[in-house]
Amino acid sequence: MNFQGKAIKYGDNVDTDVIIPARYLNTIDKKELASHCMEDLDKTFKDRVRMGDVMVAGYNFGCGSSREHAPIAIKESGISLVVARSFARIFYRNSINIGLAIVESDEAVDGISEGDEIKADLKAGLIYNLTTGKTFKVAPFPEFIQKIIENGGLVESIKKGAIV
Q: Which of 54, 73, 146, 151 could pair with 37 in a Cys bridge, judged by C-beta atoms 3.0 to 4.6 Å apart?
């Protein structure tokens, strides 16, 4: 499970209402959701995010409602991995369920700046800041979670018979 991209960094308590504002919840179109991702917090996000980029944030990322739309919007925008100090519990589970890789690390958040080039090997439990040369250790995902993410989410993993 390898990821690589530029860091897009936010602070603490980024809630699901700024990840995907409620006014867009009348659609299930993933690309439409992605087009509005982060727009109430960062008007530049949709123009600068690139496939594979890594979102970095502080404490309590994904707090607020239990909507799955938030991790879907992030994943569909091109973000491959979210690194935060901590996640709201339901956001964490929703992210795994839809196949968005997320990991908690105070050290990585402290050691990554906006625009840094990040590489992650979550099977080995390592995040590399290629810009600064620093390496951060994180808890590797258990194999069953790796399979869920690799298959694009829980439903896809079940369809493929990858997990029982």
A: 73
